[in-house]
Amino acid sequence: MAPRIRDLGDLSDEIWVCGGPLSNFEATQAFADLVPENTPVICTGDIAGYCADPSGCVDLIRKHGWHVIAGNCEIELGQGSASCGCGFETGSACDIAAGAWFAYASAALNEDDRAWMRGRPDWAVFSHHGRRFAVIHGGASQVNRFLWPSDSDAAFRIEIDLIRAALGPIDGVLAGHCSVAFTRVIDGVQWINAGILGLPPNDGRPDTRFVTLIDGHARIHRLRYDHTRAASRMAAVGLTQGYQTTLQTGRWPTQDILPAQMR
Ligand SMILES: [Fe+2]
Predict the structure, then answer these.
(1) Which of 4, 141, 190, 193 could cross-link to 172 by cystine, CB 3.0-4.6 Å?
(2) Interval between CA 198 and ligand 1 midpoint (Å)
């Protein structure tokens, strides 16, 4: 099925970009507080996830009018599915944790939130300083494709070719899903993964990540926020499969999804 694409037009000056808030209200609020007034924000999907406040995150994002594309979580929650569609191996620690947080998020969201999620486009496109950018979640071939900084150019080239087939020429791609912020250039196309707001990238510190695109330059930033409160709220609602500790330690409970060279 062809992706639903939203054209955001020309976003000339400054754009702030975040990956999955993952139900982490404290991180999402801290990020929102940093965004300069009247600055567009693009979110690459997965608003609901591991943490304690899915509806608080959805409310905040809708109130601010951020541009959000559909991650696998918006697709599955919007449809009322039974699982998150993250692409985790069955029985893995990620899969077991997802069973808990997905059921929690699904129960917390109302039908209006789900309808709003169903209305999110699959991709977006915009112009910035004379360059044309696509916004996708995981990959163009699959919404939940994990594309890591350690992957080959060929892996990225497949996705870029699919985006070009749908959108025509592009100079950059904003993506998310894999939880690790990075940038690289493949055949002149800048691939920017904004990381995720809701969890640290397994680097041993609690800070999460976001990206700014200012005057054509992408920069990855650390987000400091009240991770202790976010972790306490997870414990208080029974989300104790290990990721409540991750918010404090910056280490994931499992490295199952990481490529061997990144463990
Ligand atoms: Fe995702």
Answers:
(1) 190
(2) 12
